[in-house]
Design brief:
The complex is a heterodimer of chains A (458) and B (458). Chain A folds into 3 domains: 129 residues, Rossmann fold (3-Layer(aba) Sandwich); 134 residues, Rossmann fold (3-Layer(aba) Sandwich), CATH 3.40.50.1980; 109 residues, Rossmann fold, CATH 3.40.50. Helix content of chain A is 44%, strand content 15%. Chain A has 19 helices and 14 strands. Chain A has a 6-stranded mixed sheet, with helices on both faces. Chain A has a 4-stranded parallel sheet with strand order 3-2-4-5, sandwiched between helices. A 4-stranded parallel sheet of chain A has the order 7-6-8-9, sandwiched between helices. In chain A, helix 9 links the parallel strand 6 and strand 7. In chain A, helix 2 crosses helix 8, helix 8 packs parallel to helix 11 and helix 14 runs parallel beside helix 15. In chain B, the strands form 3 sheets. Chain B has a 5-stranded parallel sheet, sandwiched between helices. A 4-stranded parallel sheet of chain B has the order 3-2-4-5, with helices on both faces. In chain B, strands 7-6-8-9 form a 4-stranded parallel sheet, sandwiched between helices. The two termini of chain B are 34 Å apart. The chains are: A alpha/beta (458), B alpha/beta (458). Chains A and B meet through helix 1, helix 2, helix 3, strand 3 and helix 4 of A and strand 1, helix 2, strand 3, helix 3 and helix 4 of B.
């Protein structure tokens, strides 16, 4: 490893958030990012926006200056089978005048313009950093607008400074909870579930829904992938909540347990093992032999289909080393398992928003020597990538240049991706995604592998 | 002809799919173009994260931006504590030569005294006292990324340019290129060289945002304008400032002229014969040399191609959208090749936008719909009415171009759905030639594809 990369030091205030399996020591997580550390995390606003984003028949309007709305425009791969309203970027585009005189008039005008024209089933009004500071009473405007148009108009209290993405998730859950329990559940059957924390990236919710339909379980609402307001309103009729992205939606699941008595289970649909486990968990919950039998048949058939093809990938990928840095730790767990199925080893695993329980589980399943890191930054990630000499980096757009600059293969496992990676078929896609980068001929020529310098000459 | 002139009295409305992003992004882009400079945003950490992601999607390079990561407390009591800690951490990690500090809507709204804060932090913390902090005010509720960009250039110049700075080693020209591609930056330097001058390009992100594959991770991407060069800008032969909107306020070039008698040549972006001729005229005047034969030959070939293609372009109507400087230059260029830019839209509201356009447009602006402060919704309405044959704009115009079946020629920032925007040359005779060929071919391709016969010769 070059001196330049070796010399990158971990900030004193972050040392507890870096842990190596086998070296012991306490591990710190679930805290505010250190100022100036160039965290990969976004803010509370972002957290609320991404969770609510896929609700496709709702109006999402960002109250604030233009940036927050503009950077979010059509940013995610959350698909809708019907309305596409969520793929727009609506903003009050607050200007200096409103900073001085307040933005209520503009927000009111924007809602009065958009709701009659677009006829959404509900509206979410996101407060950005400056809204509270200029004294706008967003709650009151939402109440009045709701009465005026007869649709739920729900404030999302998510100024960026309120905290990390995690706090934004909480704000989003609070907002969704205002819809739940307001719809008619008379048509919801006894074998019914909700999928929480499933955002239908590249159509994944459709794949998962199909599994459950095949075994006779009804999916009442997906929150929020391919989301519809009316489905969410009757979600309390379901008998079980499956929580996939636990970081974003466990709060809502707990709330639904308290208010509607619906139990929840944390699951993951990434990788074959975890997908099978999730299906069995749901089937087992209903204590219905027919359902369980169907579940077994489904899993057997799907794995039978996928496994032989996976073996071909495994032959090519076995022994390669992977680094992963993702949003939530539950996904990280699944990825470690999924990489193992490909014969690959995880040598660096990190997340933006994992909590103590998540990390404990992650530490358990990782191999000795694995680096586990919370709320990391580009310099640390680059340092570890070089130290561990990894062959593959799994992350999102912000991590991609770290990998590519250093001549490391990359797999996008963030919400911007266009390829479904969930479920059994998703495992094959994942293998293909990994292989298409790791096995590329280009790595042979990059400085890290060629032994030639950046100029390409000895 | 139509224009929104009454900004204060215009009806309130929602912004739908904005044609702009916020000012801090422009400032960050400038900071990326100064050697050893780390961009730092004083506000919530989401601002930095969003801007990083947005720029990475365009440039596909590492874009590390630090943040003071405001908390709720900081929003109430002021962010000086976090600012100081953030700057300290950023210096420890990145070892920058300087830090470019841009404000956000949050820090501006709470009225942070940046000058005092910077002074205090440099006084108190030993480590920060050696690192210059250059401050630019970029509230997101004022202007757009375009204004933020120009403001940061001026902040750099006024911060560093000094009467006592050493003279340049060789004849030197200042170029303030505006927000252009990496290829354009390289070409501008080459042009200065052809007139026997070194160029101080501010900013110059041609290497930092389009660099080689690395053998080690660089804390700060190699390249950029050196601080020593900026210090001596007052000792250059002259300044060339590209961008029509710069003529309406005190720009960096105007300041250098006022302070150090460096003659300033405020020009539009050199696209098209007339604007390129003006640039060559300025370079000839500053250097005292005639335009080299090689450039005259490029000019000759460009003009020849105008003639060869003019029948393809006759009667063609185009809609142009993007940063104001780009829109004005592009519209002027189109008007000289026989394409009518029937819509000129920009997301921000620059002063004298209409007058600037009117001054550059062959054939007047009678038939031109000029839309400052536009969003893509208003642009779409204008496009539906004017039915142009071509849209020239950023990737963000894709949804409307796709919906209306009109070819989109991608130009400007951001390009998120095509490859190689950094390498797109549009300036100078050579760049105009490349742009001209792309425009002609986009029209020919559309004609061929929408024609049932499929002529082989066009």
């Amino acid at each position: 490893m070059s001196e330049e990369t070796k010399n990158i030091s971990i900030l004193e205030g972050r040392k507890g958030q870096v842990w190596r399996k086998g070296e012991g020591g306490a591990f710190v997580c679930d805290r505010q990012s250190l100022a100036g550390s160039v965290t990969q995390r976004a803010c509370a606003f972002c957290g609320s926006r991404v969770v609510l984003y896929p609700i496709a028949d709702a109006l999402h309007i960002v109250h604030g200056p233009i940036g927050c709305a503009a950077y979010n425009w059509d940013i995610r791969g959350a698909l809708s089978s019907g309305p596409q309203m969520h793929r727009n970027s609506f903003s009050t585009d607050v200007s200096e005048k409103e900073i001085i005189f307040g933005g209520e008039k503009k927000l009111r005008a924007a809602l009065d313009e958009l709701i009659p024209e677009l006829k959404p089933k509900a509206a979410f009004v996101y407060s950005t950093c400056i809204v509270g500071l200029i004294g706008d009473d967003v709650d009151a405007i939402c109440r009045q607008t709701s009465a005026k148009y007869g649709i739920p108009v729900i404030p999302v209290d998510s100024p960026g400074f309120k905290g990390t993405k995690r706090l934004g998730y909480q704000a989003a859950c609070d907002s969704i909870s205002k819809l739940i329990g307001t719809g008619d559940t008379s048509k919801v059957g006894p074998l019914s579930i909700n999928l929480l924390g499933e955002f239908n990236i590249a159509g994944e919710a459709w794949m998962i829904r199909e599994y459950f339909e095949k075994i006779g379980i009804e999916v009442v609402a997906t929150m929020t992938g391919d989301g519809r307001v009316d489905d969410i309103r009757r979600a309390h009729g379901a008998k079980l909540n499956l929580v996939q992205c636990s970081g974003s939606m466990t709060a809502l699941a707990k709330l639904m347990q308290e208010t509607h008595g619906i139990p929840f289970k944390r699951v993951s649909f990434f990788g074959m093992e975890d997908t099978a486990k999730a299906i069995y968990e749901a089937a087992g919950f209903f204590c219905d032999e027919v359902v369980m039998e169907r579940a077994k048949n489904l899993v057997r058939a799907e794995i039978g289909e996928v496994l032989p093809q996976l073996k071909a990938y495994r032959r090519k990928l076995a022994g390669k080393k992977a680094a992963l840095y993702v949003g939530g730790a539950f996904k990280a767990l699944s990825l470690v398992t999924a990489l193992r199925a490909l014969g690959m080893r995880t040598v660096l695993a990190g997340t933006q928003t994992g909590n103590a329980d998540d990390y404990a589980a992650l530490r358990d399943i990782c191999d000795p020597g694995t680096i586990i890191v919370d709320d990391s930054n580009p310099l640390e990630l680059a340092k570890f990538v070089m130290e561990k000499d990894v062959d593959l980096f799994i992350g999102g757009v912000k991590e991609r240049p770290i990998a590519f600059k250093l001549g490391v293969a990359f797999c996008d496992h963030n919400h911007e991706r266009k390829i479904p990676l969930a479920g059994f078929a998703g495992m094959l896609n994942f293998a293909e995604e990994v292989a298409s980068s790791v096995l590329s001929p280009v790595w042979k020529y990059v400085p890290r592998r060629s032994g030639l310098g950046m100029e390409g000459v000895r | 002809m139509s224009e929104d002139t009454s900004m204060l009295n215009e009806p309130l409305h929602a912004t739908r799919n904005a044609c702009k992003v916020c000012a801090p992004l422009g400032a960050a882009m400038v900071f990326k173009g100064v050697s050893g400079c780390l961009p730092f945003l004083h506000g919530s950490q989401g601002c930095a994260t969003y801007i990083r992601r947005y720029m990475i999607s365009h440039f596909r390079e590492p874009v590390d931006i630090a943040s003071s990561s405001f908390s709720e407390e900081d929003a109430i009591f002021g962010g000086s504590r976090n600012f100081k800690a953030g700057v300290g951490n950023a210096i420890l990690q990145y070892e920058p030569e300087l830090i470019g500090v841009a404000t956000t809507c949050l820090s501006e709204t709470i009225g942070e005294n940046m000058i005092a804060m910077i002074r205090d932090s440099q006084k108190d913390v030993e480590i920060t006292s050696r690192t210059p902090l250059v401050h630019v005010s970029t509230p997101a509720y004022n202007g757009s990324h375009s204004e933020g960009f120009h403001a940061a250039v001026k902040a750099m110049v006024t911060h560093f340019a000094h009467i006592d700075a050493p003279a340049h080693a060789s004849p030197t020209l200042n170029i303030m290129p505006g927000m252009v591609s990496c290829a354009d930056l390289r070409h501008l330097r080459e042009l200065a060289g052809l007139f026997g001058m070194n160029a101080v390009l501010l900013p110059d992100y041609s290497d930092t945002l389009e660099g080689a594959s690395w053998d080690a991770y660089h804390r700060l991407s190699p390249g950029g304008t050196k601080v020593a060069e900026i210090r001596s800008m007052g000792r250059s032969l002259g300044s060339v400032e590209l961008g029509h909107t710069l003529t309406t306020g005190e720009s960096a070039g105007a300041w250098l002229e006022k302070s150090f008698d460096v003659p300033n040549f405020p020009l539009g972006l050199p696209m098209g014969l007339r604007f390129c001729d003006r640039l060559m005229g300025a370079l000839a005047a500053i250097s005292g040399r005639a335009t080299p034969q090689s450039l005259l030959a490029e000019r000759g070939r460009l003009l020849d191609s105008y003639v060869d293609a003019h029948k393809y372009l006759s009667g063609v109507k185009a809609a142009v959208t993007g940063e104001p400087d780009l829109v004005i230059a592009m519209a002027g260029f189109l008007s000289e090749i026989g394409i009518r830019p029937v819509i000129c839209a920009t997301g921000t509201k620059p002063r004298h936008f209409k007058e600037l356009l009117a001054g550059e447009m062959e054939g007047g602006i009678e038939d031109v719909s000029i839309i400052p402060g536009s969003d893509h919704h208003r642009l779409e309405a204008a496009v539906r009415e004017a039915k142009p044959d071509l849209i020239i704009g950023t990737s963000k115009a894709m949804p409307l171009a796709r919906a209306l079946g009109i070819p989109l020629l991608r130009s400007g920032f951001p390009i998120h759905d095509r490859f190689g925007a950094q390498r797109e040359l549009t300036l100078g005779y050579r760049g105009t030639q490349a742009l001209f060929d792309r425009i002609v071919n986009a029209l020919l391709e559309h004609r061929q594809e929408s024609n049932p016969i499929g002529y082989s010769y066009l």
